[in-house]
Design brief:
The chain is built from 14 helices and no strands. By secondary structure, it is mainly alpha-helical. It folds into three domains: about 80 residues; about 70 residues; about 70 residues. It is elongated, with a radius of gyration of 32 Å. Pfam families: mTERF.
Length: about 290
Amino acid sequence: MVSSGGGLGESPSVEPQKYVQEPEHRTGLTQCLLEKQRTAVEREKVVSSLLDMGFSDVHVNELLSIQPGTHPQQLLDIISELILLGLNPEPVCVALKKSPQLLKLPVMHMKKRSSYLRKLGLGEGKLKRVLYSCPEIFTMRQRDIESIVGVLKEKCLFTVKQVTEILHRCPCVLREDPGELEYKFQYAYFRMGIKHVDVVKTDFLQYSMTKTKERHVFLERLGRYQTPDKKGQTLVPNPLLRDILRVSEAEFLAKTACSSAEEFGVFKELLAREEEESEGRMADAGSPEEAGP
């Protein structure tokens, strides 16, 4: 009887603990439900806003599935900045699918970068081509972009308008090493005699130095290309740049160089060896001389 009485005596001390925990548990559930409701409401607002911007239902579903954990308002803020830069819904979807990390950017960073791109003249729809080729223009360090722009303006002496055109037509220059980009321009200007306006118009800066040198020097050694003199004159009519760089290798050999693939193949091997030897000599010249006895 004592043991059973003891049992009855213990029960009141157990029950209150149970009832103390329940309100906290209910509060947690309530907060969770409220949070889900808020998220659902925000999602509906974002969907409505995207539809108002001209996105289709398919676009909206694609955008919401790119980064499922992205807060709806964050998604809307990033997309709004792209739309304000002059992009249409389709390019926005393509850009975000190619670079989902854009959705993780702080909105203030996006606003500052958008403002800078406008100053460069890349608003009003010109950004479409840039984003397709170089979507990292929003995630790159500011000083890296400024470095490339500085080379084009100060080292290569392109006008502000020409810099905008280059960035629009050849956005790949943003990935270039500044020193190599300057060398590429100098090669075009001094070795090939190409003026600033033609560098821009022909998209010269998008081609690799290897391809440019191989085709240009090959034509030189065949006597089919000459560096113009100070008056811009040559003894032979130089082929147009588009017939040198924009065509396939087969077309270049058949129509521009009038040579065979075998001859061009041998030449490329010789040129690569010459370049290697030249780099070796430059490295030796730059190294400190050994001290004498």
